[in-house]
Specification:
By secondary structure, the protein is of the alpha/beta class. The protein is built from seven helices and eleven strands. Helix 2 (about 70-80) links the parallel strand 4 (about 60-65) and strand 5. The model has no long low-confidence stretch (mean pLDDT about 90).
Length: about 260
């Protein structure tokens, strides 16, 4: 079995694969001060709650945008899973060419998403990931990573609004029925959902214009359903795109595995 660990700025998303099948997945908060032993306790509880024996896990893949956590997770993998994890980064096989000015600048999550989307849907592609940041990644018909755009995420935008205003409340994530809100809470929800949906539609149109051709738009991320229901430009929702991408990268680097 293969354990994949996607470390984002806000959450860690973990998946457990048997071959190509995603058996289980879970999400925990990203905390920089956790030790390898603390991560082990959390992972062990989740794995065993899915009735999986620890010694059935053959390998681990890590994609991390929080650099201080990489050695901690590597230490956990070596100490408790007796394996050297594959860390997504420079030097590993991805199957796509990265045409960024400095390829090392591209976040591991953006590369993983691009690999998965191209493998599953072909190109050209626009991948929209709703995470701590909202990212747009563009892949050509030939499987080249062309670049993209980065915008503040919905949740941190709402948190900033709450923290920097005197009377506006923190809100829960619900889709409003109308654009014209009849209360402060509904007005904030409307601005967040319809505002972000409009931003997505405009950026997608601009990207397609620069490409000079149509492109398949794939959306992923923890709150993808919240925005996608109000957007007309998203072709495919794929909430587990990142986890699939880590599995695919593992297979490209270990062609005789996984078991």
């Amino acid at each position: 079995m293969l354990l994949v660990i996607d470390v984002g700025n806000s959450n860690n998303v973990i998946g457990l694969f048997s071959g190509k099948k995603l058996l289980a997945h879970w999400r925990i908060r990203t905390e920089w001060n956790r030790t390898a032993d603390e991560y082990w306790v959390l992972f062990k509880e989740f794995i065993q709650s899915n009735h999986v024996e620890i010694d059935k896990i053959d390998d681990i893949v890590i994609a991390c945008v929080v650099p201080p956590l990489v050695p901690i997770l590597q230490d956990m993998a070596k100490k408790y899973f007796s394996c050297e994890p594959l860390v997504v980064g420079p030097g590993i096989k991805t199957g796509i060419s990265i045409l960024y000015r400095d390829p090392a600048e591209v976040g591991a999550d953006r590369i993983v998403n691009s690999v998965a989307a191209f493998e599953k849907y072909g190109g050209p592609l626009i991948i929209v990931d709703f995470g701590t940041a909202t990212t747009f990644d563009v892949v050509s018909r030939k499987g080249e990573y062309l670049g993209g755009a980065i915008f503040p995420g919905i949740q941190i935008s709402l948190e900033a609004l709450f923290k920097h205003t005197a009377k506006l409340p923190r809100i829960d994530m619900l889709v409003p029925e109308n654009v014209i809100g009849k209360s402060t809470v509904d007005s904030i929800r409307s601005g967040a959902v319809y505002g972000f949906a409009g931003m997505i539609e405009n950026l997608v149109r601009q990207i397609k214009k620069e490409l000079g051709q149509n492109a398949h738009v794939v959306a992923t991320g923890g709150i993808v359903d919240w925005i996608a229901s109000k957007s007309t430009v998203i072709d495919t929702l794929d909430p587990f795109l990142t986890l699939d991408g880590m599995r695919i990268i593992y297979e490209k680097n270990h062609p005789k595995k996984p078991k």
